[in-house]
């Protein structure tokens, strides 16, 4: 059994950030399941590493590449880890100075992950305070004035 | 100017229910705009009669044809009308006896419509109590256990 | 039976605005029930005219007297009416230029009211688009940073 | 500096469960801050250990003492911990077999806590999937039919 350590969590994030699938599969299982919170269009379980990577690509596209995660803390336990990140992003096409919750993301997100044999097999995103409301506003299928946005 | 009357509102709903586009355009403008409440995948403005009819078709498909609206009251004013309907439906594939808000719709919906020259040019759906929350649950892109549903 | 007319709806609002209970009871039944949307602290059914007037007072206090309703249209039907208002307000203590949904209200609200013998016996507030979400944010029991606000 | 360990997290929960304030202050700082998610009546920051204990008492009362937390995993990091619990409860007065989200709580909750010198100084509750929506329904100030509930 490979113990879950802070170093391994950090290495997993680096692999994911590299976009190199060969590196990613060292840390993420092919049968990974990932749950996105809320009831907006991106919410629900993603079943497989490919579905998860498609989600990452879609989130990147919907934010015009502005989406960033800064890890603040990492915690580990038996076959599991949690981390808290500050996530920031702006919906593609939104004014740079927008403060609308439908266009601007800037809040803490936590990730709870279950590991098996050194790889992540299950992940949950979560939010604090009333940020789950803001998160569903951010990923709503429309601009602040309600105009629907094509995927 | 064609006055908005209860009879005309009823006739508009009958035309919409018939699915006959020639009849529909007697009551709905080609440049109709319609706002669906919430921040789920179907929410936002539909801009054009065709977009609105596509929405109706999509709602019908997502509910396996079980979606119904029973009008309870109709109110009219200057170039506008409002009506209250009891809307019911079950998500396609859900168990017949499901009571989950993610699968069962059964609540009152308010429609506010602006008319011009005898045709509806703008519509808003509205909900009462905490039904807006239930509505976003119903149209969420996943089953009660979070499993994502293909469109 | 007293017919519901636009004039009577307007007179009811004027009576309510006057704060004069003798005038109010000409238009609002003593057993009035009123439903406030959302799941924030003010949401739910208010059962009796006094409970409704207490609610109005509480909303006034929570907005430091800044709460206003501008009626845009009135619609009438058999023993019922609906109207659409633009509601604006700022939470008491919030910065004058706040744009936070937790502090600033500025959206359309509809009211659906049932009448009996010339008096309102049941009322529902409702919202369009994703404004039900904004409404629950506005009446949340905390400031934008989550600090709880005493009633 | 007292290191945060799984044992210390478990001891903190035991102390809290004992209701013995002398034991509680061994693990929780007097200036504890705790953030409850959502925009329902209980949401927001609780500022002080006493405010937090009042919240616990209020949650217990609103659930008629049925509220339980079963810890599933504990994770630790530098001066912080996270745990995942299955929280269950029924609103006081609700039918024993209620499945309404306004009356029944049964989902996973994530706690993220910051520690200082061996005591918890800050806590955040978090939820997964669409449970933040269910959580605001559960703590809504009304029964499933909208009837307001006195505190």
From TrEMBL, chains A, B, C, D:
InterPro entries: NTF2-like_dom_sf, SnoaL-like. It comes from the Bacteria. Signal peptide: none annotated. Pfam families: SnoaL_2. Residues 9-122 form the SnoaL-like domain. This is SnoaL-like domain-containing protein.
């Amino acid at each position: 059994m490979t113990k879950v350590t802070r170093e391994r969590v950090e290495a997993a994030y680096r692999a994911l950030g590299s976009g190199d699938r060969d590196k990613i599969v060292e840390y993420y299982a092919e049968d990974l399941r990932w749950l996105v919170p809320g009831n907006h269009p991106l919410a629900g379980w993603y079943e497989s590493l490919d579905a998860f990577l498609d989600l990452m690509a879609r989130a990147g596209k919907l934010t015009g590449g502005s989406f960033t995660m800064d890890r603040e803390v990492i915690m580990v336990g038996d076959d599991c880890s949690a981390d808290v990140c500050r996530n920031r992003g702006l919906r593609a096409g939104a004014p740079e100075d927008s403060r609308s919750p439908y266009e601007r993301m800037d809040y803490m997100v936590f990730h709870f992950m279950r590991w098996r044999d050194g790889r992540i097999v299950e992940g949950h995103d979560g939010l604090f305070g009333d940020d789950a409301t803001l998160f569903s506003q951010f990923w709503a299928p429309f601009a602040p004035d309600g105009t629907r946005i094509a995927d």
